[in-house]
Amino acid sequence: MPFAVHHTLAALGSPFSLPCQPTAVAAPQWLAFNPELAAQLRLPQAFWGTDTGVGLFSGNNLPDWTKPVAHAYAGHQFGHFVPQLGDGRALLLAELEDESGQLFDLQLKGAGQTPFSRRGDGRSPLGPVLREYLVSEAMHALGVPTTRALAAVLTGDWVQRETAEPGAILCRVAKSHIRIGSFQYLAAQGDTAQLTTFADYVIQRHYPGCANSANPYLALLEAVISAQAVLIAQWMSLGFIHGVMNTDNMSISGETIDYGPCAFMDSFNPAQVYSFIDRNGRYAWGNQPKMASWNLARFAETLLPLISDNTEQAVALATKALQQFNLINETEFRALIGKKLGISEATAADEPLIRDYLNLMVKNSADFTLAFRLLSQSVADINQGAATLFNDQTAWQQWAGRWQQRLAEQGLTSADLQSSMDAVNPALIPRNHQIAKAIEFATSDGDLTLFNRLHNALKTPFMLSEQDEELGHPPTPQQCISNTFCGT
Questions:
Q1: Which positions bind Mg(2+) (predicted)?
Q2: Which residues are annotated as a binding site for Mg(2+)?
Q3: If both were cysteines, with which of 57, 357, 427, 451 could 438 make a disulfide (CB 3.0 to 4.6 Å apart)?
Q4: Same domain for 223 and 187
């Protein structure tokens, strides 16, 4: 099939987006390229690792099939509403159609100032680009809906943050970059006609089945609630902490978006926070379902005039839809953790077993990833595998005995159980200390060896080769990362 390009968001015009050209950079050069994703998008090979590709992904020489725009949105940032945010350092170049007909945004991040930059420089340091490249591609390999990394280039310019850092640009791909904040932006303007136009666009692009519903806008709300409830459960099951779950960072399509101060937990702690700017723990691991629900309530508020002309009825319908979030999220989380424990179809009766293992992990400061990965080695012998992670052996033995009894009810062999568990419990995640080390090497002397090694290993997170075994090790006390940062 031929290369197919669309500009459906740009075609909506103002106020949904504004045209904007990227700012030229001094001396762009390749950092990374994703040929598998390029093939999926049917991107012509003239852009694969070539000078022509550098021209595209740096923004220095855009082909005529691009039509760059900056998307407009608002958002609640740590609970405080800002009526205009928008793409302050990102530009949507085009929407590419894959072989299945699915549209994907092609967006440059760090491409310079836009109409929404406010006082920002529109640039990105190298570190956040490498972090997002690694973590977003790892999330994809782990089976979690996410934006993806297509390319990264070094700009040849310096970006001033606390110190001067090398600049870089990331080209990321998503089903779209539309957020809850996109709807908040329009709702704040009080223009119901524009809001309706945008809601119809989102339905057509992401949830076409809603158009046939008796109440399409209520159906849209329900669809987004369901997608986000499942997504958050997936994050939680992997020990992932987004770090900045503002409404402008929550996508309508149900993808993980805007990797800033994100991190995967090492030792399990439900109150764990890494983001330097999250001083009160608003977006801690254990708070993510509650905050997602809060964000979705803000989304529901924007749709009220579309759901019903009768405000009281609209509120009642939206409230009922929002009440489904916890049920969907908790059911999905139980199912995911159940599978990680080797329980093929976890029910409410399994919740005490699941809860008690999580509590055991917390009390023993067990590494989140290893506490599940090593559990398959404990299927045949509870003195092996995960047993080594728990100082309180009495509590472990008591729990493990109950767990083995539950597994026995399924009538599966130890080999089958171990295989199914290893297929859902990663041996490798993007460890904070390894990412920090890769960024340090790349920033200080341009050494991408560890970055490339991590990138390749994270493509198969459920199979860790012998030569990469240390990449899966938790940090030593000296290697622990306390804070992560965004790139703005």
A1: 249, 258
A2: 249, 258
A3: 451
A4: yes
